[in-house]
Write a structure and sequence with these properties.
- The complex is a heterodimer of chains A (about 250) and B (about 350).
- Chain A is α+β, with helices and mostly antiparallel strands and about 250 residues long.
- In chain A, about 15% of the residues lie in helices and about 40% in strands.
- In chain A, about 35% of the residues are buried.
- The relative contact order of chain B is 0.14.
- Chain B has a two-stranded antiparallel ribbon with strand order 1-2.
- The chains are: A alpha+beta (about 250), B mainly alpha (about 350).
Chain lengths: ~250, ~350
């Protein structure tokens, strides 16, 4: 009986000591980062299924614009990197805001791929992923080839009138499906100043400028002559380059 | 009496609430003695339930968007899993580009589709299911329908240990069933095993021609499988509407190249060529006899053979010995009677 009382007293004393431990670390609130992915035509928001006139005088309507964004990463000012998201399928029908918790600090860069890196793309089976995964059969929303292996990195499809006739129907189809190892491009920006503070939400934007995808002159894509590609063809890689160049961070 | 009634009631309630347990066991695929061993993909070794599920799904029209087609629509067992049509016609009876290939001996194929772009039989299942002109556009609505079938869902759970029917289960089970399509019991095979009186004089002469330096047929239609799985241009056209391998590689030097098909059961799989453009084996033999049309990518082995009418008849007779009637009449390959 006496022993039990002593043991109980010691236990209570220990608990009290533990609860008074001054070394217990204070909870550090992470920073919150929102990444808004959107598309623009000039300085205005771009709308899928709206008719625009490109620099070649073609009236173009993009009906489907989707891209895989891979390995979205923040680059810290000390050179270390924080992976925010491995895969995201962006449907440009609507802007998307992704929200992340990230370590506080100053970040000078953003890195991401447009497409799916080769290690996830070659001989990959979409059926192996759960339905919620962007690379799954359901989550990929048809962004994979079935006659060939691999994901379709970007689908950019629509119709155009290339005759220059006012009010003419958009009878000319254009289809750009990019993919294959060479069709993967990495966007890196190293001149950002993103300061993430504890408990504070910071926003950045990733914008795809659709008018710049079409571009102008011989470097651009005139859909009256260049309107159909699938995979890493010469035209496909040209499209990938234009898509990559159209991206801005703000 | 009362005690018996209670016992029966308990049995009835139990039978209503607990579906019968499904027990699985390995499925033994009989491999002909001179064939290589089948290498099964990890996680999809054949079992009784996996093959059974694949068999059900292979003939299940709910897998097509309009519930009008199954895999078995274009791959009919009695025609060595072809359909006798020039080219595949999908849901909307549109003429597609390619002839339905045989599914015989798929277990040994290192890649699939005529340009060889698909590396596994599991992945291949996605091709027709996701082709808007063949069976639909997206298999997910079909999968939702299948999951309403309690018995099928339970079978899928028991076969693959997953919560429901999903793309993994569909692609794996279809592949498991198709790997059972082994064909190696033709008269030619029996002759090779040393059985007497399997081939007549004409067929034997045709066999010798087939394996000769003169024709070089067996340099591509090689080995037990009668294919080397190579991808060649045989000079079928001067200009190819369907560019074949070029579609995959984007190289014009690959235009008109298609995978060597097996010749097993060839007498049952007319019409021939990637686009079903040749109606008879006589036409095919004549193409090889002339050496094919001029094309920069044509394989160098394609040159005029100068076969006599007798030799052509001998080759034809030999090709007909490659029919495996036990294969095309195998009841295990037919739809289950529900």
């Amino acid at each position: 009986m006496k022993k039990s009382v002593v043991f109980l007293s010691l236990a209570i004393f220990s608990l009290l000591l533990a609860s008074c431990d001054p070394k217990e670390p204070e909870e550090v609130k992470p920073a919150v980062l929102t990444v808004n992915i959107d598309s623009k035509w000039g300085s205005d928001p771009f709308e899928v299924q709206q008719v625009y006139t490109d620099s070649y005088g073609n009236r173009v309507r993009v009906d489907n614009f989707q891209s895989y964004i891979s390995m979205l990463t923040l680059i810290k000012n000390d050179g270390s990197e924080v992976l925010l998201k491995d895969f995201h399928l962006q449907n440009f029908m609507d802007a998307t805001t992704l929200t992340f918790e990230a370590p506080v600090g100053v970040y000078t860069g953003v890195r991401f791929g447009v497409g799916v890196p080769a290690t996830y793309n070659q001989h990959e089976d979409p059926a192996q992923y759960p339905s919620s995964h962007p690379l799954s059969v359901a989550g990929s929303q048809g962004m994979f080839w079935t006659w060939n292996t691999g994901y379709i990195f970007t689908k950019f499809e629509g119709k155009a009138d290339t005759t220059g006739t006012e009010g003419a129907d958009l009878l000319h189809n254009f289809t750009f499906h990019t993919g294959d190892t060479d069709g993967y491009s990495e966007f890196v920006s190293t001149s950002e100043n993103i300061e993430l503070k504890a408990g504070v939400t910071t926003a950045i934007g990733i914008n795809f400028h659709v008018d710049q995808i079409f571009g102008s002159g011989p470097e651009g894509i005139d859909v009256s002559s260049d309107f159909n590609t699938s995979g890493a063809t010469v035209l496909g890689l040209k499209f990938v380059g234009r898509l990559d160049d159209s991206i801005t961070i703000d | 009496m009362c005690r018996n009634a209670i016992f029966i009631l308990i049995i009835l309630i139990t039978s209503c609430t607990n579906p019968p347990q499904l027990h699985d066991a390995p499925f033994n695929i009989r491999v002909p003695g001179d064939f290589p061993a089948i290498v099964f993909p990890e996680g999809n070794e054949p079992t009784q339930l996996r093959v059974l599920l694949g068999r059900k799904l292979f003939y299940d029209k709910r897998l097509s968007a309009e519930k009008t087609m199954s895999c078995g629509t274009c791959h009919v067992a009695s025609a060595a899993f072809t359909d006798g049509k020039k080219v595949n016609s999908g849901m909307h009876n549109l003429e597609l580009k390619r002839n339905s290939p045989t599914l015989a001996n798929m277990a040994w194929s290192p890649y699939f589709m005529m340009e060889g772009g698909v590396p596994t039989l599991e992945l291949q299942a996605l091709a027709p299911l996701h082709n808007s002109h063949e069976m639909g556009m997206n298999m997910m609505p079909a999968i939702n329908v299948l999951n309403e079938d309690d018995a099928l869902r339970e079978l899928a759970k028991a076969a693959y240990g997953r919560d429901s029917i999903d793309p993994f289960v569909v692609t794996r089970s279809l592949a498991a069933f198709q790997r059972t399509f082994v064909s190696g019991d033709s008269r030619f095979d029996r002759h090779q095993l040393g059985l007497k009186n399997q081939l007549n004089e004409e067929e034997l002469a045709g066999m010798n021609l087939f394996f000769s330096e003169k024709t070089q047929c067996s340099s591509c239609h090689a080995g037990e499988l009668f294919t080397d799985f190579g991808i060649y241009n045989i000079g079928l056209y001067e200009v190819y509407e369907d560019v074949g391998l070029e579609r995959k590689t984007h190289k014009t030097t690959d235009a008109g190249k298609f995978k060597t098909p097996t010749l097993r059961n060839i007498d049952l799989t007319a019409p021939y060529m990637h686009d079903g453009s040749m109606n008879s084996l006589e036409d095919v033999i004549e193409l090889y006899n002339t050496g094919g049309k001029t094309h920069p990518n044509k394989d160098e082995r394609m040159h005029p053979l100068n076969l006599t009418p007798e030799e052509k008849a001998q080759l034809l007779a030999f090709l007909k010995t490659l029919t495996d009637y036990n294969f095309v009449q195998n009841a295990m390959f037919l739809p289950l009677e529900e």
